[in-house]
Amino acid sequence: MAAPLPVPDIGIVLEALSLVGTFVFAASGALAAARLRLTLITFAFFALVTGAGGGTVRDLLIGAPVFWVIDPVPAMVCMIAALLVWITPQKWWSARALDWLDAVGLAAFAVFGAAKALSFGIHPFVAAMMGVVTGCVGGIIRDLLAGEPSILLRPELYVTAATLAAGLFVLLIWAGMALPLAAAIASVAGFALRAAAIARGLALPPYRAGS
């Protein structure tokens, strides 16, 4: 894959994936605020920076207009997610709700981020990395704001799941698969790996210093 892959039209499927990722990541940010018993305004702030954080960094890196600045819909979706978490009883949200919402957002954003990078002529290898950035940065910002250990420091697979989703999407597009099908397969694969990691504690072996 020595040359950029042209993806001129992201299409409605990937746009829908982007909104799904924005909503669930924003909801996970609002849930983090709920655990800290913060105000509605702070709920909204947590939701916005979590839902839009990864995509903002991606757009700045690839030279694209920041998506939620030129289109108010993603920001509105973040506010809706914050309000939904605010008005629903806390008992409706399980102890691991944040992890599962994060898993959905991770897979959706990783694929969309890779696709958007490809559409701007970014090399496929770097485009896959942009998918990982899109999927992971929002969760990192959320954890930093909440004063919690970063999700990157947890033992179970996280960045690996984003890498699978973004990398598989790029490979499938390179192989000539239709964009909607490639997006669906890659998103499901990334979510399945992250879900298995949550449910079974799957993890890569840690670094071990030589004796």
UniProtKB/TrEMBL annotation:
<feature type="domain" description="Glycine transporter">
    <location>
        <begin position="100"/>
        <end position="172"/>
    </location>
</feature>
<dbReference type="InterPro" id="IPR005115">
    <property type="entry name" value="Gly_transporter"/>
</dbReference>
<dbReference type="GO" id="GO:0005886">
    <property type="term" value="C:plasma membrane"/>
</dbReference>
<feature type="domain" description="Glycine transporter">
    <location>
        <begin position="16"/>
        <end position="88"/>
    </location>
</feature>
<keyword id="KW-0472">Membrane</keyword>
<keyword id="KW-1133">Transmembrane helix</keyword>
<feature type="transmembrane region" description="Helical">
    <location>
        <begin position="40"/>
        <end position="61"/>
    </location>
</feature>
<feature type="transmembrane region" description="Helical">
    <location>
        <begin position="12"/>
        <end position="33"/>
    </location>
</feature>
<keyword id="KW-0812">Transmembrane</keyword>
<comment type="similarity">
    <text>Belongs to the UPF0126 family.</text>
</comment>
<dbReference type="Pfam" id="PF03458">
    <property type="entry name" value="Gly_transporter"/>
</dbReference>
<protein>
    <submittedName>
        <fullName>Trimeric intracellular cation channel family protein</fullName>
    </submittedName>
</protein>
<keyword id="KW-1003">Cell membrane</keyword>
<feature type="transmembrane region" description="Helical">
    <location>
        <begin position="100"/>
        <end position="119"/>
    </location>
</feature>
<feature type="transmembrane region" description="Helical">
    <location>
        <begin position="181"/>
        <end position="203"/>
    </location>
</feature>
<feature type="transmembrane region" description="Helical">
    <location>
        <begin position="67"/>
        <end position="88"/>
    </location>
</feature>
